[in-house]
Model the fold of this input.
Amino acid sequence: MTHTHRNLTPQSKDADGRPRKAIASQVHLVERLTQFLCDDSLELLKQHIDELAKDITAAQTEEPAPPEAPADEGTISLDRSYILAELAQIQESRTLERAVYYAKRLLRGIVEVKTNGINDINLLRWKEYDEVISDSLWVIPRRDNSGAHIAEYWGNYVPQIPHQMMVRYTKRNDWVLDAFMGSGTTLIEGRRLGRNCIGIELNPQVAARAGELVNAEPNRYNTVADIVTGDNRTAIVQDILHKNGIDRVQLVMLHPPYYDIIKFSSDARDLSNAATLEQFLAMFGETLDNVTPCLEKRRYLCVVIGDKYAGGEWIPLGFYCMNEVLKRPFQLKAIIAKNFEETRGKRNQQELWRYRALAGGFYVYKHEYVMVFRAR
Ligand SMILES: C[S@@+](CC[C@H](N)C(=O)[O-])C[C@H]1O[C@@H](n2cnc3c(N)ncnc32)[C@H](O)[C@@H]1O
Done:
C-alpha cells in the first residue's frame, strides 16, 4: 500500500464524508464502558454498546488534532471511525466473554498509553495513525505548502520527510539536529510537532532567511529552534548543545547537497563544491564524524539523498553515502524510495528528458532515498 497523505493528523472526513474526530468526555466514556462490563447478558451489553455508538456518532466534532495530543480537562479526542469500528466488533461478538474482552481492550486504549519508548504513538490505538507511513515506498503527490513552508529554496525537501521522521523517532520535547538546515524545513515542522530543533547551515543568507520562516510559524508548544551559521564539519557541537542545556539529541537529519547537482554557494566548505566524488564522500564523512557522536545511543539518523548521472553513467550517490554511514557505529534500518516529481531545475523539461531517456537508454530520476539508521 502506498501512502499519499500530507501528515500524521488524521483526515477530517472519513470515507463517508463524516467528520472523523469526536470529542467525548473521557470520564463519561470510561464510566459507561466500565458499567457495561458488569452486564450479565450479551443482549444487554450489545444494547448498551448500540446506544454508545449512536452517542458517539452524534457527538460534537472538532478540528483534527494529533492523537497524541494531551486530553484536555477530561475530554478525549477520538477518531470516530476507530471507536465505531471497535464498538462494531463488540456487537459482532457471539459470546459475552468475547464481547467483554473487546470492551476491555477498548477501555485500555482510552485510559492507557503504551509506546515503544522513542515516540508518542499510542500503540493501544495504533489503528488511528493511518497517516504514519510504515511502507518503504513513499508516493507524496505534492509538498505540504501550509503555514511557513513556502518551498522557495531550490533544493529543499518536502516537509513530510522530517514530519514522518519526527513522529516515528522522537517524542514531544525531544531534540532534533539538522546539520544541512537549508531553508529550515525541519525546524518549521519541529515547531509544529513540539520538537526542539537545532539547525546548522553554512550560508549566512540562507540561515537568516530560515530564521524568518521558522519565526513565522506559531510556537504552540513553546519549543526551541536554534539556528547556527557555520560548517557542520567543524562546528563545536557540544558547545551548541550545552548552550541549549542538553548534551545529546534524539534525532539527526542530514540532507546534504547531492554532490554537484545543485551548487549552493561558491564556498569551498560547501559539499556541493567538492572537486571530486571522493572528496564529496570524504566531506560527508567529516560531517558524520563531527555531528553524529551527539546522537543518543539507539536513536535515529536520517539521511536524505538522491543519485545522479555523470558521463552517461548512473552514480549511486545514495548508496555511497549509506556506506559512509555504515563505516561508523550505525545499523541500517530502512531504505525508503520517495517519489520525486518536479524540481525547479527540471520544470517544463519533462518531454525533453523523456526523449533523451528513450534515445540514450537511461531512466529519468523519479525517486530519492530516505535512509534510516540507528546508533549502536
Ligand atoms: C540539500 S540542501 C538542504 C535543504 C533543507 N533540507 C531544506 O529543506 O531547505 C543542503 C544545504 O546544505 C548546506 N551546506 C553545504 N555544505 C555545508 C556544510 N559544510 N555545513 C553546513 N551546511 C552546508 C547548503 O548551503 C544547503 O543549504
Notes: The radius of gyration is 24 Å. Confidence is low (pLDDT under 50) at residues 1-19, 63-73. The chain has two domains: 21-123, 137-375. The pocket of S-adenosylmethionine is lined by residues 153, 155-157, 180, 182-183, 185, 200-203, 206, 231-233, 255-257, 264-265, 269-271 (CB under 6 Å).
